[in-house]
Amino acid sequence: MAVGPLVRPYRVQHHGLVKRIHPAWLVAAVAFVALVGAAGFRATPGVMLHPLHEEFGWSLGTISLAVSINLLLFGLTAPFAAALMERFGIRRVVAYALLLVSAGSGLTVFMRHSWELIALWGVLVGLGTGSMALAFVATITGRWFVKRRGLVTGVLTAGGAAGQLVFLPLLALLVDARGWRAAALTVAAAALVVVPLVLWRLRDHPSELGVTAYGADSDLPPAPVAPGGAARRALGALRDASRVPAFWLLAGGFAICGATTNGLIGTHFIPAAHDHGMTEPVAASLLALIGLFDIVGTIASGWLTDRMDSRILLGWYYALRGASLLVLPALFAATVRPSMVVFILFYGLDWVATVPPTVALCREYFGASGPVVFGWVFASHQFGAAIAATTTGLLRDRLGNYDLAWYVAGGLSISAAALSLLLFRARRGLPVPAPVAVAAA
């Protein structure tokens, strides 16, 4: 990447009463919009499971398989996408990712067979959303921010929740009034319309604008690109990280995080509520409320991450999530009761509050390799989500209800709290691997 002849620490300047805003905030805003645009598909499976089942006769297990492949690729793509962003630039990778999401969602209106659903929902959209995953957030915050990293990580992570909030009620109404194809085309259009903004305003590194990262006291030129392709850098980061016990503790906890959010609640909450007589638009509105409260919870988690030990935060988040899942089966009913509203509020605040402290710990343990290592930790998140999405669908087909899935998820969440607290044992004297150049820390 070409660097201008002069890169200066950014200084706030006044022109009369007008204060210049550091360009890092503009980049973060564009990244937020891009994440919202890509998040439309995250709301799609929950409102489409029953319509696809009714039209094509596919079992919930078969449809959940497509969701699982999507979730798995969503995670496995992330570390390679982080390396590709270093090699080819953030702007280019994000633009292509949005095009893949748009194509994968839009082409479903022509499908006739279940393998086409797997190819489009699973493969195309999985690759696209994976390139827009949380490793993208880690890359943006690593390059553009020194101060307020935790807060910005929380805000950008909340972009996915904002997308869910925006799209879920709309998609549920579209499915109810015009069928699932209208919803699929809406998601495709939402991803496509963001591409021009990304190409116009997203920037790869502060040096392109002749400034340094927000809060930096000295020049922060781009990290040199390590020799070899993106795959080699991503796999090298995994090799080095796998020698550190903290990596496996983080990955194990995050796998459970994915199983209990995207894989379970995100995919099966609406069908489970429908089983108890609740209409899909009402259930979708409840899931959208989780997205609303998640925005608050994730931003607050980012603020806390800048001030508290991330290990303690993760322990509390996972333990409280487990307790809420254990009581969920008793809360379902044909109408929305106050107890369900309390669960939605509580679970929403905790939904992806785990992300800011996990990103911070990856940076603490792995330095400049943090974004790519977090990509692998996030891959474990999606691996857990994929397993949960499929197994939960199969359990529903076999048992006729979701109760066992909620109880197992609650127990797993409590075990994730224990894994997080074990990170204290690896806090001192870490054998930090040699950095894989992905971003300026």
UniProtKB/TrEMBL annotation:
Major location (coarse): membrane
An example Gene Ontology CC term for this record: plasma membrane
Keyword Transmembrane helix: yes
UniProt keyword annotation of Membrane present: yes
CDD domains tied to this protein: MFS_YcxA_like
Location relative to the cell: Cell membrane
Superkingdom as given in the UniProt entry: Bacteria
Domain Major facilitator superfamily (MFS) profile residue range list: 26-428
Transmembrane segment boundaries: 21-44, 56-81, 93-111, 117-138, 150-174, 180-200, 247-270, 282-304, 316-334, 340-361, 373-392, 404-424
A molecular function (GO) term: transmembrane transporter activity
Membrane topology designation: Multi-pass membrane protein
Gene3D superfamilies hit by this protein: MFS general substrate transporter like domains (1.20.1250.20)
Pfam families on file: MFS_1
Keywords for this protein: Membrane, Transmembrane, Transmembrane helix
Alphabetical list of PANTHER family matching this protein: EG:103B4.3 PROTEIN-RELATED, MONOCARBOXYLATE TRANSPORTER
Protein name: MFS transporter
